[in-house]
Amino acid sequence: MFSLMNQPDIDIMFIRALIAFIAMPGVVAFLLPALISGLEPWPSGGTLVGTVPLVLGVGGLLLCVREFYVRGRGTLAPWSPPRQLVTSGLYRFSRNPMYVSVVLMLLGWACLFQGAALWIYAIGITIAFHLRVVAGEEPWLARAHGEDWLSYSARVPRWFGFPSRRVPFDW
Question: Could you tell me if 64 and 101 are in contact, meaning their C-beta atoms sit under 8 angstroms apart?
Fold first, then answer.
């Protein structure tokens, strides 16, 4: 008989990771775009080109969640963050590939459904992610991981292909 009480900590962590995935990117990248698009069964007037960023975004997001779970021993949720600084996988190329993946998904939805509201939502979320990273996450990571974070942030750009300075608030 299955019982959570008798399972190792990794099962509890998996449940936390699943809940965080559903609560965060599940809402931002799936539920809200569906509501904004009017829950159309198939895009009308959109372009299938949107499937490329959508698929890349979903794949990138899943890879990032796996890295947080396996390497970082935590989840994407602020209430259960990785215990270790994750610098492997897509995190070798960007300090924020999870956010980039979600933005790719939103751009994919906007291309598929061709709705102005989806484009505005994607742009708004992109700006919100940047502000969250710069004003919240990076200062916290610097405090939590010290020299490891400073070394990592000096080597790896914040966003793919866009090097950033080590100053915490470089708008």
Answer: yes
- Is residue 56, in this structure, part of any structural domain at all? yes
Kindly tell me if the per-residue pLDDT of 32 is higher than 70.
yes
Domain extent for 27: 7-155
On whether residue 34 sits in a domain, the answer given is: yes
Q: How many CB atoms lie within 10 A of CB 137?
A: 16
pLDDT for 158 equals 93
Local confidence band at 11 (pLDDT 50, 70, 90 cut-offs): confident
Residue 100 three-state SS = helix
**CA atoms of 62 and 70, how far apart (whole Å):** 12
Residue 1 lies in a domain: no
> Tokens standing for 104?
């790719």
Structural domain count, the chain: 1
Entry pTM: 0.81
Mean pLDDT of the chain: 82
Give backbone dihedrals phi and psi of 2, rounded to 5 degrees, phi first: -80, 130
Q: List 159's β-bridge partners, or say none.
A: 162
